[in-house]
Amino acid sequence: MREWLVKLERWMNNYKLKKKLLFLYVVCVLLPLIVTDSVVIYIALHTEEVKQQHMMENDVNAVQFSLSNSIESAASVAKAADTNEYIDDFLNEQYESPLSYFVAYYEAKNLLFNNNIGGDSSQLTIYADNETLTNGGEFSRLSSIKDEEWYQYMVQTGCNTCVYTYYDQSRSPVVEAKRKILFLRRMNYYGAGCEKVVKIELDYSALVRGLVKMNYESPIYICSDGKILCSNDGKSSSTGVDFLPFVYEDQVGYEKEMTVYGKTLQIYALKSKTNIVDSMLQNAPLILLLVLINAVFPLTFMVAINRSLTTRIQELGQAFESVDQDCLVPIAYVRGKDEIGALMQNYNRMVDRTNELIQTVYKERLKEQEMDIAKQHAELLALHSQINPHFLFNALESIRMHSIIKQEYETADMVSKLAVMTRQNVDWGEDLVEIRREMEFVEAYLGLQKYRFGDRLSYQLDVAEDCRELRLPKLTVVTFVENACVHGIESKTTPGWIFVRISRDEEELCIEVEDTGDGMDEQTVETLNEKLQNPSIEQLKDKSRVGMLNASLRIKMLTSGNYRISIESEQGVGTMIQLRLSLEALMNSTGI
Question: Which of 74, 412, 420, 482 has an alpha carbon 20 to 30 Å from 133's alpha carbon atom?
Fold first, then answer.
């Protein structure tokens, strides 16, 4: 535990006081508040969800019970008609005339109602395969409905008792409901006589009204084969259109399946739109007040403490930044009697004593700095005088070899490129040059070398737009390009490439010069890396790789050593030199 606390303390030491106080508020106030409120809201939501689930389950069970009663009531009526011997005889009788039929019909009809057969709102019709019957009322000939969809279903399935739903496509009568929910039964209780079928059409509108009047809190849907038979939503139960498909699967909160007389029905209860969010909105003023008490007020107090501490500490920190100046700057307004106020007073006393000491040693240090600057300027002039003939010799040598080997009069173009190089090479009034001008010199040099090597040399220059106005020591890049030509391409008989890439990489300027020449062995690369990373005036006396050492030394002086240089090479493959300069040091030195 102690080790963990030590690590936490070290980690906190890396952050400013303002962030520490903010972290304290978040961890000790805001986070516990969020966790506590989240638990309370979760419990409330879970309780509401369980309550809603029980409610939906009760609603579905109630609908199932009501629907079962309606169907069973129809089944009881059909069974009573089937087991009535008088009605069976009436349907089997062959009548001599319509008059004799109607006499028997009224007696059978009275018998139906006297025995509570067909007395409810459902419509009962009995069909018999007896052509002496007259169609009308509760009895009809079977031949009149043999093409009906429901009768064909009974014939094809061979069922004796079933529930059947369909949409009646006929146009007559117009006022009659087109959605049909039927209970069907073959009348074969006595076995003898003609074929007889009893059809009871449940009152569809009454079923819908029953669902609506029950005032279920959840939307209820009774479905079969993916279609809505009826519901309490007021939209899906219009009798004048076909059954609509059920498209609310993602909203189903509870469902139950029931099978009655061969018909499988699904009863769905959808999730109610009312939830705890509505309750929270209703109590929004109280919730807002609690948020103010638990979160905003502590935050306001924390901000006040933060300003009391951090503002004075920032002033003290800004005062300490003056140590890089010629004299320290005292704090103008010291306030507070706490530890920070005492620290500010002690700082002002230290400033007074330190400024006295600075004035004593300032003049001696100034003389030493002037001597160092003069020495560096002399070394820079020596480097300038050394590098001038080096490039001029190589340029003239290229012109000479072209004139001897080719014997062509393209000297004008070569002299033009040489002029660019000469102007850049001779004018040492300013040691620094923009990268775009340096690259003009590089392109002129490579173009001149192209005459020398012909198809053996190809090159590609790529400079990022945000680097073109940065300034470097003159002839820095071309020095490494010249090294790639002389030590890379010249010693290789096959064609080769030189690539120059300049870009920004975060806080550094990245310069890459790559060639596909002969390369170098590991020992040479290691030695050269050491020299270029730590160049000095003494190394130039060796006369080996003087151009690259010269450029590295000038970059070291310009950036005060804030640079890195590395060489990667493989024999037979090529060499890449990568130079990385600190942008901050470069801009400070060049005045950008």
Answer: 74
